[in-house]
Amino acid sequence: MYLRKVLFVIIVIFSKFTKAQSSLNLLNNIGQKTADQVVANSNIPIPYGYIDDRDILWSKMVWEYIDLDEKINLPYYYPADIFSIGSKRRSLFDTLLNGIKNNTITEVYEDSYFEHKISSKKIEQTLTKIDTTDQGIERLNFGLPLRPKDINITTINAGDIEGFKIKGLYYFDKRQGEVKYRLLGIAPVALNVYTLSQGNNYEYNLTELVSLFWVWYPGARNTTHKMIVFNSKNGSYPLSYDLLLNARRFNTIIYQEENSHAFHIKKNSLMRVFESTKIKNRIREFELDMQNY
User: Fold this and answer.
1) 92-96, 200-204, 263-267: which has the highest mean pLDDT?
2) Which of 6, 144, 209, 260 holds its CA 20 to 30 A away from the CA of 98?
3) Is residue 66 part of a domain?
């Protein structure tokens, strides 16, 4: 009994000392990273494990949509205003776009089948529209030079992104005996820049949203790993976009699956949710059936 009391006192003193030491490190080393931050901000992301084709007993390719209006998906949207925050935090769209501009992300394609590459110059043209105002056209008709206010420039930025489309593979690893997921591609979704230039008074529907470009995600992990995401539950332990995406910390709706002849009623959101739930249940039931075999 006496020994237990002594051990209890030692543990309490040690825990208080550790807590105090941690606080002192935080207060006395402003701007320096903690041990957890150093581990989280390592130079390379955690590499994927090797999967042999013979280990994949079953697989299903699915396309999903991440709606940024949902609360759980907001970490991918903010910060939308890059002028009110430091350079160490960016939205997922800005992270991908900066990686493309800096050539740290080179595997960028026009569609989700990754067949036709798209250059950073073409992406910039897709995101920007330069138009002449009516007053500018009148000045040109009279042979007068254009003024800066006679030109309207519309650019798609992080605040205009409505969501992300992702493409991934669910597969059953017979060695591990479980269904796993591998993210293969990601694409920011927004209104076409020509539609966006019509102003906020224009009423649009979801069918007008387009995929701006598709990024081969395994080739972008170094970029998404280095961008820190605010952890609302624990400010001392940072997260990265790579960690969030690979851990599937988001909510999605499956809008397409592999080898589907007739998929989702585009104009009926409720039926899309029902169909997405059916596919998710089939994947979950397959894993349960294999474990109960």
Assistant:
1) 92-96
2) 209
3) yes
